[in-house]
Amino acid sequence: MWVNGQLTQKIAVFAANNKFGQGALPATLAEFNLMGHAGGVFRTFYDISLVDGYNIPIGIVYLGNSSGNPNLTDIPPNLTNPVCIGTAALLTEPVDAPDATMGFNSSLYHIPLEHTVSRRTVQDWCPWDLQLAPPEKPGDGVYPYPDDNIKRPLFDPCYSACAKWRSPKYCCTGKYNSASSCSRSYYSTQAKMVCPDAYSFAYDDATSTFSLPPGGGWEVVFCPTGRSTTILRTFGAQLNQLNQAGHMTKQINADAQNITLIKIMNEGVPSRPSQVLLAFVLLLAVVCLS
Question: Can you say how many angstroms the Cα of residue 19 is from the centroid of all Cα atoms in its chain?
């Protein structure tokens, strides 16, 4: 799938006439608002959504060079290209992740990837009662929850709590139709752990919505191999600056190439020992030698 900013009005007309239908649930969604409005300016908003459940991994590649706008051509992929991989069979070790520079042939801009979730965790993240086709088990069919002794299938589509039960509490409707009254369910907590850049429930905007100056296009990649991204956690401030300026700045570009910043935000590993830590180690050495 490829969407160009020049087709905005046509897409809006199709959407208004319900020409774009929604497939059967559960489904991983790639969502676009090509002419959104925020902060007094037009922006393009897009996201990967697991609000209706999850069935396949998805990645989004921004094609800024398709806009004809020189202010968009130099936006690097580690600010724009989210990936959600919730299928264990397509998860790789972080060092082997082929999506580290997804959509961009450069070693300068490393896409921040989730590093801590194991293959077993990804295989087991979907609650038993939300699985599209839970594995069979001898007996009365009642599953001890959670039962980690039952091996899950490699392909494991998962309903969201909203898609399965249609409850206002899970769908953030009725008296729950506000950020203060609608909170994460167990499903959305698990989904966010596996795919940090994806929507997990209706009021997950701050950690799930990508926005850019309007223009350009996108390629939606189905079933990418690698790791899920943590772009908004790492570069949320830089994306806000990009939207305010309307173009890349030297500081944003420097931050996007700062591998130390990526490691600190995603692994919690400082680039060098702190002065407090060095002082503590020195004190410990003196005590041990005395």
Answer: 27
